[in-house]
Amino acid sequence: LSYYASAPVIAVDAITCNGELVFSSVVIGRVLSLRPYDINRPQTTWSQFTGALKGLGKLGLRNYRLTTAKEQTIQLAALGMVAVGQTQSSLVGRRFDENLAVADGRVSLLALAPRSIASYLLFMLRLLLPWKISLSKLPASLGLIQSQRLHLESPQGMEYLLDGKPVHANEIEFQVLEERLSLLPGPALQLRPDTPRGSGKDTVRLNHIPEDEGALALADQSLPLFPHATDEEYRGLFTSLRENTTPSSSYQVLMVLSVMLALTGLYANSAPVIIGAMILAPLMAPIITLAMGLARSETNLIRGAMYTLVVGIAWGLGCAVLLAWAMPLEFPTPEMKARMSPTLLDLLVAVVSGMAGAYAHAKEEIAKSLAGVAIAVALVPPLSVAGIGLGWGDWEMARGAFLLLTTNLVGIALAASVSFLILGFAPFHRARKGLAVSLLLVLIISAPLSVAFAHLVQQGRIQEQVPRGSLVLAGQAVEVGQVSVRVGEPHLVRVTLSSPRQLEAVHVDALKQIISERVGEPVELEAQLNMRR
Known about the structure:
This protein has 533 residues and is α+β, with helices and mostly antiparallel strands. Helix content is 46%, strand content 21%. It is built from 15 helices and 15 strands. Strands 1, 2, 3, 4, 5, 6, 7, 8, 9, 10 and 11 form an eleven-stranded antiparallel β-sheet that branches. α6 (249-268) crosses α9. The radius of gyration is 34 Å and the shape is elongated.
């Protein structure tokens, strides 16, 4: 009461909508007015918010024709619009870093035109966050038109909320009347009469909102779940991927060189050399092409990419087998062993690599070599180890490496296909078949990977129960060193024991009993006894 008693009466501009004064925001179309959600209620409950999501499948852009005070005509497609009035109490008005009220003598009209349901949900989430939206950096799906007068037309007619009252009309006229209202400015108005009036010029920032012919093409269509790529984006990417469906001589030479370098690193147990082979490998191109073929069900892309991959894998296996026969070394190094027992963690590596490869190809500004390294990491080393296993006749080694190679190949293809779907390069109805086949293969491969991962978890649990460091066994001080576990029936625990005095079987039995009690089941203990002097 004291605030209103001390505030002077001031004259302010009035905004009218079809001749009626507007005291809040005018919501046109279905911007955020999916019932029971109301844009003009600053406090929205969670139930109201979730209730708004039920109508997502009915969202679609509509054609609007807009004329400004300077007779500038704009044909656009939008989900809906919000004309911000004098108050800052609306959800939209409070989210901008500048005052959108009519203090500068212009009507501010915000047009929302998301290209997908995902974009729409992201914009709704952005409005609920506390950070302000800058008018100089509007979100991609939002446009701003400011003018002293705005005339809006829609051939199909439009529904709008005028101060909470639903109205239907084919045309809407917004106009600013200078200093027509005498008000006691309350806190919700946040008026600044000292703000200099605008020059009367129009401001049009349509950002990525479809206009003219693009607006006509998108009107009256339901929004897709994910945005669709433009014809230019798809045409450029498709042309580059189609060139990867033939195994060129450069591709085959690079494949041989990368595998030979990987083999050298595997035999020398040198991680830097293996990384060099990963950088050199040319496998990114055909596998991304395969992913696009799966996403769009393009038979020619799938056939060409598979042929190119088979040629590259054949060169890799052939080189690895020949080198395994020629090399006198016939024992697996730690780098080889690391590729012989794949788990679900390796599938995760493949999925991340596939997403990186697809995103890098879709965005021209990203260096594709970075994603190529990630993909090569998951393919070249296991391919080389599989060839070594075949050359040695070690079928267990070859089987494990082939499983890792297949896991990574299928995982990368599936993840890249899903990425292309999300990025808008493939409609869902075309991608269903290819994604279903890839997902089925991933599920089949995941069965042995899950077993291996469960063994890995169990192995870590058993290792944690083995005592480390100094302890007393059968009255003698013993140092427990290296520990390794092999899961089985029973589990095999390998340890290294050191002591100043000679160790006997009684000390090993004492340690075995301790481990069995901690693990909760019998174990087999294999101990290396060392005498320390």
